[in-house]
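Problem 12. The chain below contains 279 residues. Write out its predicted structure in token notation.
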Amino acid sequence: MNVELIVDSTVDVPEHIRSRLTVVPLTIHFGQEEYLDGVTMDKHRFYERLVESDVLPTTSQASPAAFDREFRRVRCSGGSAVVLTIAAGLSGTYQSACIAAAEYDNIYVVDSGTAAIGAGILAEYALACLDRGMDAAGLARALEQKRQDVCVLALVDTLEYLRRGGRIGRITALAGTMLSIKPIITFSDDGQLQSIAKVRGRRQVQDKILELLRARFQSGRRYNLAVANGGAPEEMAEFAARLKAEFPNYEHFWEGVMDATLSVYIGDGVIGGGIQFLD
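Solution.
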């Protein structure tokens, strides 16, 4: 039986494997204007609008109906599917997929517990499992186990978007901006964004992310690496070189652009790095 991998549009993957996925888009709103993430607005145009616009963009989760359209197609083809979504703690997209999947016995929904490159690392792992002939039920179980082996760390350049999105207070954001404090964020066990370190100024950011990754590194295990940026491509290239030098024995390395829907909450000027342990 053919097994498909379905993801939502927050899952960042390298372009060379995107054609192997079915993508269900979230929706981005700039005031009264509405765009389908990755369909009617790509990442590069999003970052242009983010800088140009005085309006704070918002997002809407993918709907159960959007997932149901894909699930009906899978059923008609006689296949099965695994759905990998953004962390349930960040979006109702996972719940939408579960609602739609309740009517099907060949669809398995997995909460990635992360987003962007973190979920992209898991998606690439899922495709490798499918290449080895794993069935849908087995893949869902494998993803639920492997998500704990993914660590993603990212710089938030400004606290303003978190403040405007209601995630921190105005005074905290103002103090952070005045002091040039740059938080390093990751995903907590319940899939929420969590600040785990702070540095003053961008010059120290790469050093701090590498320090935190070193603390999480487990010698003797095989691993993949990834980097991503949200409006900071040149800095990402520099960081990618440093990450490769720090952890040279990686099996796969890829670079990407952070998805627009996550950047609604953390802004532009973002760089991030991720590591996935394979065994």
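Discussion. The chain has a mean pLDDT of 86. Students who got a different answer should revisit the alignment rule from Section 12.3.
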